[in-house]
Model the fold of this input.
Amino acid sequence: MKKSQLLIDGQWVDALAGETIDVIDPCTAIPFGTIARGQVQDVDRAVKAAQGALDGAWGRMTATERGRILQRLAQIIVANGEELAQLEARDTGKPMSVARADAAAVARYFEFYGGAADKIHGQTIPYLNGYNVSVVRVPHGVTGHIIPWNYPAQMMGRTLAPALAMGNAAVVKPSEDACLSALKLAELAMEAGLPPGALNIVTGYGAEAGAALTAHPGVNFVTFTGSPEAGILVQQATARNNVPCVLELGGKSPQIVFEDADFDKAIPIIVKAISQNAGQTCSAGSRLLIQQSVYDDVIKAVAKRFSQLRVGTPEMDLDCGPLISARQQSRVHAFIRNAVEQGIPLLAQGELADGLSNKGFFIAPALFGQVPRDTRIATQEIFGPVLSAIPFFNEEDAIQLANATEFGLVAGVWTENGSRQSRVAQRVASGQVFINCYGAGGGVELPFGGVKKSGYGREKGFVALEEMSTTKTIVQHFE
Ligand code: NAD
Done:
């Protein structure tokens, strides 16, 4: 059993209370390690260490030096990619090919933001005679990062790389359900030359370490990805200290298929957009909206593909792994049971591979058809491999339906009509729109984040560097 510790001020340490949390293998439900159960006093040490880094070597570094460290880290991640992927797959159960892609994506985050670190320039502003005015970008200071369990490594790269590029010092609270890759990345960051205290990791429960971090008066900015309920608690905590946060709270993203779509191209991508990572993706395409005139043909083809989905262990490298925990498994089962009880047609299910442990958190992907528009599976985020297909009449109806949830993270539009592509892209309420493709969160370069209850603020792309910093206006009078 491997025992993991906290990283505070460059040192690996136990939680002050000495308590631990079991690390559970989602394929077997058997513990295979422990993480430290960090609490309020551990968070306090981490925040002080981060402040110390800002006052010390890290705070004095030039943007170019910071960028070089991040780019070196990217190279070290690539060199350790297989180990990172194995760790991520063991911790989350995801197929090895997905875990490998995640490891490559983390490296890309540090490469991209490492390269960008010294390319964020300020402005000069023409003002009154006898004045020089410059606007410079400055870091927030100590940043808190709350990370979920679905893509732990990628999320760490997404939030941490721009924060460090801008010169913040970070305290990361990964999910208690999957945090081994975050700890490994921290180890690699130290190897890359990140000074002590610039990155601190406090593992533990959300209600303990997470709540302590978001409420700490020494934290100047928070990023959070997770459930809307926890997002509200994060906002309340940061509001008490009057500090900003960026929230990514999931979605119920529509994939809209018009009658003139290229179905052969669309259908495999539509199925992947919900089965990827066993549906545990904030930007999963979980609502399939199909124009009535082609509904029967499209749903038949989607059902055929759905029934071919296979679920297994990371080593089997099939379409889906298990869900992350027994809690998520029973939550997703409850959605499926409820839909069946309501008489919603269950059109197709994937299959579990032979020989899986019956204690593992596996679940067969499920496709529901003719889903009534106001039902739970049509409107709520399930966070599992469950696709709800709903027919629509015309373009106006499709847009109304696409926008008929509380969320607005991503949308997919399938049509060969260029004007319709533009009209729908303009009117659909979401942070990203994919036309004749579906990115499910991909692309380090692409600004990402939600509207409505999917959250606010943006990550990824250059815009993340603005989120992770603020401006200072310097006005100089000269004679
Ligand atoms: P969660 O929101 O409870 O946990 C996400 C992270 O927030 C974890 O690190 C957790 O420890 C932390 N956290 C929890 N409560 C906190 C608090 N009060 N203060 C600070 N941090 C806190 O998510 P969950 O319980 O793991 O999953 C529940 C549901 O959330 C899922 O079924 C899914 O719908 C949604 N979810 C969404 C995403 C996403 O990417 N949008 C990711 C994970 C979960």
Remarks:
- Residues 135 and 303 are 56 Å apart (CA to CA).
- The two ends are 70 Å apart (CA to CA).
- The pocket of nicotinamide-adenine-dinucleotide is lined by residues 146-150, 173, 175-177, 205-207, 210-211, 214, 225-227, 230, 233-234, 248-250, 282, 328, 331, 381, 383 (CB under 6 Å).
